[in-house]
Specification:
Layout: E1 7-25, E2 31-50, E3 55-59, H1 73-85, E4 91-96, H2 107-122, H3 129-139, H4 143-148, E5 151-155, E6 160-163, E7 170-176, H5 183-196, H6 213-221, H7 224-230, E8 232-233, H8 236-242, H9 246-255, E9 260-263, E10 270-274, H10 277-290, E11 295-301, E12 307-312
Parallel strand pairs: 1-8, 3-4
Antiparallel strand pairs: 1-2, 1-12, 2-4, 2-5, 5-6, 7-10, 7-11, 9-10
Bound molecules: cytidine-5'-monophosphate.
Length: about 325
């Protein structure tokens, strides 16, 4: 048996939802989704090191926005895994943060999935993929996708993943807003807007969400123009209602040459699909010059999910 490592680093990507169809409000407070996730190359890293107790630290330009208590999904992941195996969560988890915080790109979920993989390797607990996915689903609706990465369809509240066939790489620009948006608040606003329109907002009123055949075909063919025509996010109206300035960001990126623009997940990050890497650079310049966002990032995807990138093993006796 190989010895347990002394430290483990896991790299984990952000996501953009290329299709987020939101069903009605369920009795448990969640919404059924047809949620097509695509992992993009903006990454956080979580490093697990043995410690006398569970401890969390964070670094990176937005580290001050990261909670360092047990509300952080990295802590909840470590506690859940330790409980599963009947051990103490004696670990220091360091988050090197590059994914926008509370930006609708699943940064918190990504860190939870990464912490789970890192602790499983550090503690040599050998948890099966199926068990890891079940723990991820308990941690949050987007966490299983952060574990698997690539492209996937999330049914249920987003945690029940099905594979999606994809060809090639899609190029994206992300406009990061000042301040985050609360996911529950955006879902609540979506319900409010639906009720106000007279459509009703419960699971009895809204049809069961289904993935779009055009969107799945565009992904299968690797056709960016067709994907642009099929992108959709039912939470966009709610995010723009809560943060009206996003409408201008979306407009600037579109007039700057994006094939399409949409709010990423529950926002407030806006995502712009570009025809190629050169177009992405030019859209990014336009967005930067416009002053309609705090930061602009370029990333492509799909990319793999949570992956161990470094582990330091104890020295073996000669
Ligand atoms: O699963 P997660 O903890 O990320 O969900 C955060 C909140 O977002 C939920 O408490 C709920 O208000 C909302 N949500 C929802 N329907 C989903 C996913 C999340 O209403 N499918």
């Amino acid at each position: 048996m190989s010895p347990a490592p002394l430290t483990v680093t896991v790299r984990v990507p952000a996501k953009v939802n290329v299709q987020l169809v939101v069903g009605g409000l369920r009795p448990d407070g969640f919404h059924d989704l047809a949620n097509v996730f695509l992992a993009v190359g903006l990454h956080d890293e979580v490093t697990a090191t043995p410690a006398d107790r569970l401890r969390i630290t964070a670094s990176g330009p937005d580290a001050h926005q990261v909670p360092l208590d047990e509300t952080n999904l990295v802590a909840r992941a470590a506690l859940a895994l330790a409980a599963r195996h009947g051990i103490e969560p004696r670990v220091h988890l360091h988050i090197s943060k590059d994914i926008p915080v509370a930006g609708g790109m699943a940064g918190g979920s990504a860190d939870g999935a990464a912490a789970l993989v890192a602790c499983d390797a550090l503690w040599a607990t050998g948890t099966t993929r199926k068990e890891l996915l079940a723990i991820c689903a308990d941690l949050g609706s987007d966490v299983p996708f952060s574990l698997v990465g690539g492209v996937a369809l999330g049914r249920g509240r987003g945690e029940l993943l099905e594979p999606v066939e994809v060809t090639g790489t899609f190029h994206w620009v992300f406009a990061v807003a000042d301040g985050g948006l609360s996911t529950p608040a955006v879902y609540r606003e979506c319900d409010r807007l639906r009720a106000a329109s007279g459509a009703g907002h419960t699971a009895a009123d809204i049809p069961e969400p289904q993935p779009s055949p055009q969107l799945l075909a565009a992904l299968r063919m690797g056709d960016a123009a067709a994907l642009a025509g099929a992108l959709c996010n039912d939470l966009q109206a709610a995010a723009v209602s809560l943060r009206p300035a996003l409408a201008e960001t979306l407009r600037v990126g579109t007039s700057g040459g994006a094939l399409a623009a949409l709010v990423s997940g529950s926002g407030p990050t806006c995502a712009f699909l570009a025809e190629n890497p050169e177009a992405a650079k030019s859209i990014a310049e336009t967005l930067r010059a416009s002053g309609t966002c705090r930061k602009v990032r370029i990333a492509s995807g799909p990319v793999p999910g949570a992956t161990v990138i470094a582990g330091c093993l104890p020295e073996q006796p000669a």
